[in-house]
Structure formats: C-alpha cells, structure tokens
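Spend some time on the protein that follows and explain the fold to me:
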Amino acid sequence: MRLLPFTVAASIILLSVAAHSQMGCIRGVVVDDVGQPLPGMRVGLAERTWDGGQKPAGGAVTDNSGAFEIDDVPPGTHYELGANNDALVYPAKLPQTISVTGSGPCTAVTYDAGTRAGAAKLKFKVLDAVTKKPITDLTVHATAGTWSSWLPVGDMLRAGVPNGPEVPSLSKVHIEITAKGYFPSSLDLPAIKPGEIREVVAQLNAEILGCITGTAVDDNFAPVKETMIDARRVPYAGDGYAPVHADGSGRFRLDRLRPGDYDLYFENETEGFSRLWVGWVDQPGLSKLLRVVVPATGVCRNVTLNMGPRGPWLDVVAIDADTQQQLSKLSITVENSENNRQGGTSELAEPQPVLVPSHASFTVHVRADGYRVSEPIHIEPLIPDEKKELTVPLQRRPVTDDNTRQMSPPQ
C-alpha cells in the first residue's frame, strides 16, 4: 500500500472534494404522448464525438413513477438522451439533445417516448442481381417518423430465423439495404398493420472493390511491426471491415474495400502506440489522421501510415480519501484537453501503467467501484517513453444520493 505524506494528501483530498461539486447530473421523467409516466423504460445518455459517433455516458431504468437519475456526468453541451423498451412496444426515437452543467442543480429532462404502437415485422429476401443467389450478410437501416434503428437482418438470416426484426406499425418505413461488395439499395414501404409480416424483396448490384496497401512507420519513418490497422469508412454506412496486422516489416494490406473515403486507425501498445489518441485535433505534436480515397476502378492505393511519436506511461494510483488505502479495479479515462469528445477508457483489474499520448496535453478521469469519479486532472505534455506517477484520492459514494439538490427547469 502506498501512502502520501499527510500534508500533501490532505491538500489533494481538499482539492478533490471541492472539484467534485463541478460534476453534473440529470434527473427526469419519461412519459407517453399524453403525458403519462412510463415505468421500466431504458434510458441512455451518450456524448456526440468529433467523428459523428457516440460515446456512452451513463444510463438508468425508470422507476414506477417513470423517473430516473444519471449521476457523475462531466459538464458539456454535446449530450443526447433517449429512452426505449421494445417489450412495451415503445421503440427508440431520435434522441433529445441536452446540456449538462457542472455546478448547481441537476439538469431536468422530460422525455416524450411517443405513442405506444403494436409492432410489425419485416421479412427479407435479397438476391445478387446477376447470379440471383441469396445475400445474407446484410446491414439494414430503417426509419419511420422519428424512429430510427439498425436492424440485425444479417444475423437473423444466418441463424435461420424465419421472420425478421420488428418495426413500428401504422407508419411508412424507409429502409436502406447494404452488403459488403454491393451497391446499397433504398426502399420506401407503405404503412404496415400491427402484427403484419411484410416481405421485402430486393436485388443488389456488385461493386468493383479496391484495396489499401502501405507501411506503418513511427515519427522517424522507421517501420513498426505487427501494428493493427483498421479502415473506417467516412461517412459511416453501416459496413464494417475486419482490421489487419502489419508484418515484420510494417507492411499491411486492406482488401475488398468499397469505393469511398477511409480513415486509417492504428494500435500497437507493445510498441508504444494506442488507438485512444488517434485523430486528436488541435494537438500539433500528434500525427494527423490519415484519410485515403479508394477509387471505383479497383486500383489499390499505396500509403505510408505515419503513427507519430511513441507514448509515455502514466502510473495512476487511486487511494481512499479517508483511509489512504490503495484501490484496485480502476477505470482510467484519457481525453483530449482541447476537445473532450475525443479519448477513451482503460479498464484495469489491477493497478498498472496506462499508455498516454506524448507531446500533447490531456485530461484524466479516475473511477473505482463504490467511489465517486474524480474531477478532470489536467496533464501537461510528456515526452515519449516517459514514466509519470499520478496519485488520486477518491471519495466513497454515499449509500443514498444527496437529495438536497433542486432540479433545474426542464429543457
């Protein structure tokens, strides 16, 4: 067990207690279209990320009065909140955008889950336009009014499920069908009756596929062996590609890519490179995200993937603020200090150093079971391969939450 000198520990504990008040929270209620509260609804909070994706930020289930609460939410204006329960026939709607403040009362939200509607089902029959052979590796995106969802059609077809996924009834449904190696197809379906099974028949035309080849190198242009390379299409179209690993000379090849723009992500923690900081903006010391255009001619693009400088190691030691006993099972979140929508979290069963970016400032949040999350800890730029210790006292989470805070006006 590591202990801090009393004077140092006391000052850090006081800072931690004062800083915790800056964390925000959300209190709200989920109602139907006539304002009646809905118990048992799954509530999810997500933060919009810089690349158009989402990063989970918390969740809850409504109680018997339709109420919910999500605590320990960092302040921000890029949050989206949604609620659904397919078993109750309240499918997901478009999320509600909210802001969270770091001091004062909780953000109050009233979420309208809409009208309870009996579900309908879609049954898919998709063929290759030339060979007429069935295509089962499908990704289908469906929208109906404010409802929107990716449907697990491919998984259900491969599993032999006769009737497909559920969609809202009594509303027109727009679907987009995609499959690896094929051009997408869009269809508009008229309103479906509750309980009806609507068959969807479509044909897809094969694409001319391309590839990306290249060499993964560090900031000195030395090859980096066995690096994992992941191509992500921009904008995301529901199609995923399996990552590949570079060989002993840093060479890699990504095959069967649909024409379009791709961002290349990389990871090789053994060599000092983490995916967590790939593509961080406003950090001149880090390499830029490499975007590659795959043409519709089937030609391979050859690139040099410069992964930038190797990272240093941050040894985070979390202690009980009262007993100063060292804690285990930590969650360490590292965020871009210039854009808190960029970063990631490392889950540690036992305390161990975490790889962080060099030549870039970043922010750290520390979590442990039964304790409140730490406030953001700002770290100035470190140099490659540097080792830095960070001791963070955490306050135990009360058995009952503080009910003295008043709710702010609903958004």
